[in-house]
Structures are given as C-alpha cells and as structure tokens.
Amino acid sequence: SAAAAATEKVVEAGARSVAGKPLPPLPADLENGITQILFYQYVEPVWSARRQKQALAELNRLAQLNDVTGRGRIALEGLNCTLTGSAQGTRAFCEGMRAWDPNLFNETDFKLTDNIPAESKFKALTIKSTQELVAYGLGGERAPLLGKNTATHLEADEYHKMLSQPDTVVIDVRNYYETVIGRIEPPKGGAEFLDPMMRNSREFPKWLNAPETKEKLKGKKVMMYCTGGIRCERATALLSQMERAEDELETQGIFHVRGGIDRYLKTFPEGGYWKGRNYLFDLRGEQAPELKAEDDVNRETSSYCCVCKAHYSLYKGKHACSNKECKVPVIVCNGCKSRADSELKAELLCPLCESGHVLRDLPLPDLVGQKRKLALEGGYADDTSAGAGFAADAKAKRAALKGELEHARWLHVAHIPLTATADDVRSALAGIVPGGKGHKQGKGKDKRAEKKAKEAKKKTYFGAKAEKAEEAPTAAVTTTTDADTTVSAASGGGKVEWIPDRDTGFFYGSCYVEMPTLEDAEAAVARAVAVPTKFGGRFIRVNFAPARAKDAGRAGHSGERPPVPAAPGGEVMPVTRKSGGGEVLGVVPVVATLLRFDTSSNTFKA
C-alpha cells in the first residue's frame, strides 16, 4: 500500500547519482566479493570515427591496468558497459575515464555495487562496436536529439513520490519478457501502469506512435523507467520530439528515474513500489530487493513455465521462443527442463506468441519529417533552458521548443538557397523575391497573372520603362524595378548571420537576422505567415530567435554570403558567385578544395 511504502527504509546514499560528484568510498565491510560497474554515456554531437577509436583504446588500457573485465557496446553516439573487478580497481577505472575526458565522463553516473559474489566476475573484456547503444532502430538522422529532450531526470526518492500522484502514467520501457517477472506497481489512486508488451526495443517507437497510446498520454505526467536508465534516454527524447512536432499530443511533462530500477532498488531495499525481480543481462541474471524475503518476491510475480504453465519466475537454461520472428527468452521450470531441451524445443512459445500479440507491423513515426518541421519552426535552432524544475518548467521548455517563442528583435530564417546573399535574405523578409526579381508572392496566385508579371519584369530588367511592369495585375503578384528592390532596415533587417551545422560546418539554409526594433521583427514574422515569400523554389520560414537575442555566443558567421566548409568539421570560407553563369566557385587555402554549385540540382559538387 501507499502508507506501507511511505514508511519503508530508504538508503539515502543509494538515492543520488554520482554524476559530477565523488565516487562512493570503499565500503568498510569489504569482503571477498567483487564490484560491478554499470554505466552509459551518450555523446552529442557524436564522436568522430577517430575519437571513437581513441575512447575504445583508453577503455581497454584502463581495464587491463586495473584488472577490470566485462562487456559493453561502443558507437559513435557513446558507451554502454557492464564491468566487474575489485573495489579498488573499478574505482580506479572510473577515475581514469574521468581524467581522460573530464567534460564527458565527469557527467557519467557510474553505478557501483560492492560485495557481489566472486563468481559473477566476467572472464574477459568484450566491447562490441555497434550503430546504436540501444537497438531502437533510430540510428543516424532518425535519432531524436538528446540535447533537445524536455524530459526531467528524477532521483529515485523523487520518482517514488511521483508514482503516487493522480493524472500520471508510468511506462515500463523494457521488453515484455522482463516485465513478466517484475515491475513497478503504483499505489491505488496513483499513476496508471502502461506496458508496451514489446519483444524488443525496435517496437517501442511503433507502440508510442499508436493512436491509442497517444490518447493515454494526453494531459498526463508521463513517467518512464528501465533497468539502468539508458533505454529511457532515447525513449523520453523520442516522446519529447513527437510532442513538440504534433500539436494534438501534449503532456504535463516527461520524467524518468536516474539510474533506473537498479538505483531505485538500492534506494528502497524493501522494494518500494517494485514487485518481483529485475531481469538483468549480466551474469547475476536477476536482482531482487535486498531486504525482501525470497518467498515474498516469488509471490509477487505472475510469470509461469511455458511448458507446464506452473508458476515460476526464473530464466534458466537460455530457452527461447520457437517463433523465428520472435526468439525472446522463455521461462522453463526445473521439472520441464529436460523435455524443453529435447522433444519440446521446437514448440516453446512466449506469452506474446501464445496470445498472438504483434507490434512489428505498426507504422513508425515520421521522425525525419518531425525533425525537419521543428527545424523550420525554430524548434531545433533556438531552444531555451528549462532548468531542473518539474511540470511547470518542462511545459515552459516544451512550449519554447514547439515554436511558441518569446518575441525578440532577432529572427530565425529558414529555407534559404545555398546561393543566397545577405541582401537576398533582407529582400525576402521584406516580401520581395530576391535576386532583383522584385515579386511578392502569395498563396494560390493566378498562373496567368504570374506569367504576365514575368514578361513585364523581363522588359523592365533590360531597361524598359517602369510603367510596363505596372500593366501586370497586382492582385496576385506585385512587380518592381531593380531600384524598387532596395529594402529598408525596418522591412528587411540589418545584420545577417549564417548558421552552419555544428558537426559538419555546412550551411543548410538557415540564418539569423537582426531587426532594428521589436515591432519591426513582429511585422516581419506576421508578413511571412500571411504572405510567404518564395525564394529558390521554396517558401521561406520566419520565426523569432530569443536565444540568439540573449546569447551572443550563438552568433553565426557574418558575411555577404554563406560559408562553405573545406571538409566536414574543417575551416569555412565564404561563397563567391561567378558572374554571368550558374556556378559558384570557392577555393579553400587549407585543403585546396574546389567546389562548384550546380543550379540544376541546387547542390555543391567537387
């Protein structure tokens, strides 16, 4: 009950992360057991291939030096490891990783467990190179950005309190074969428990994208948990991105427990709201509340042997579902083990396959499209810090990222062609098609009127009288002479700063523009919404840039033209346009790279 859980023993030392703090001291009652380290660390922006190799080499060096063994995964996006060694050796390993890259690994939550049985020590160190630390199928451009995640980390005791709150849901982000032997059971009147019932992490985005799932999350505080915390990092970032990109999906905040179930059970050794066993992927196999009797733990589970259907909660013998599209672990009791290893091996089925439950055919959310939408709305260009608060702060950060931005004199302009100049951007903000064409275009324009306008424009461009241009209908398209395209600062702004990609240095079509007054900025945004200007075949997108207004450190590259990098991550150079032709040429002294701009494909070519 909630009252009983409230009076449980709480181990304060286990309730807090060691990120940015000293490691736990050596235990006074150090026995002959070993120490286990669980840790993960995402890297954003991702490592280069060279830096990843350096990280792996340093990890191997420190492990060999301190007799640390185990297994883990390394990717461009970071590290995820389960390691074992002596109490002294594991701590020396952690301090070594912190010393190698303080900015990164000082923020790592190294979870150390002392005095575990010596037979749990790994025999060797095996680090596997992968595309993702957790196989969500969200690698590359589909990965939701952790730096834009509006979710809040809660310490275990804070998380425990939130579980008793109404208008709250708690999602178990683990696989179904893990939840059947143990899970959080919130108190009556508290959070509603949601189990995705998935076979693997790749099914989570599909479950989250289902209309019935979104309906359950609307207007609720959304809590998540997993074994050690790493699965929740991407899971919460995914929900955060979906929420900001989809107007109909809005929660009261997203929260996850720092350190996962592992830290929750260390904080509440009698179990708290946890029932059953915590499935582990290391040699221990499982984890139960330290101060709860074994019989009580067994009674709390509803799992059963897949052969005889008798109550049983231990995974032994590495039995797997016989469905070729499933293959998840299944539970087999001691009495059925010999038959499961022989004549029944091809007939073993997990509970999901027995019931016909399938998620794999559900559609994925359009993650790339969501990221593009947020970028155009300013959601990835101008984030604001929400601080460490709970629902109110999370809602404020989410609103800012969603495009409901604070008004500011600085504007963010997107959908700009690579051949643009600063004057082109100012013209576009003023509602004039850049490049001396002088058209102001609205939605649903009449094509015949546009054709006449172009003919009139062609005449004025080569020196005909301006009156010829006025013959074109102005209801849909307004034309001007070249002299008329001079834009005032109040309409088109002043300083233009090009925004290159932080990782590659490439310009992808966005910039900041400083307007003389706040009123001028508001007028420019309103004008872009009401009558968007088409530039290079696309309508520009305009929004406020409060983060740039407050922080000069966010400044982009100044200059008349966008920068072009010599190579990803290399020095940048301004673009120069070849007069009389459709090419843009640039020579970078550092690498002597020649780039040509192909107007037919709107891309740079070497």
Describe this structure in words.
- The protein has 606 residues and is of the alpha+beta class.
- Helix content is 28%, strand content 19%.
- The strands form nine sheets. Strands 4-1-3-2-5 form a five-stranded mixed sheet. Strands 6-11-10-7-9 form a five-stranded parallel sheet. It has a five-stranded antiparallel sheet with strand order 22-15-19-18-23.
- The N and C termini lie far apart (68 Å).
Features:
alpha+beta; 20 helices
Number of helices: 20
**Sheet with the most strands, sense and barrel status:** 5 strands, mixed
The overall strand count is 29
Q: Report how far apart the termini are.
A: 68 Å
- Based on CA atoms alone, the radius of gyration comes out at 29 Å
**Structural class label:** alpha+beta
Low-confidence stretches: 381-389, 436-450, 452-485, 567-597
Gross morphology is globular
What do the pLDDT scores average to?
81
Helicity level: 25-40%
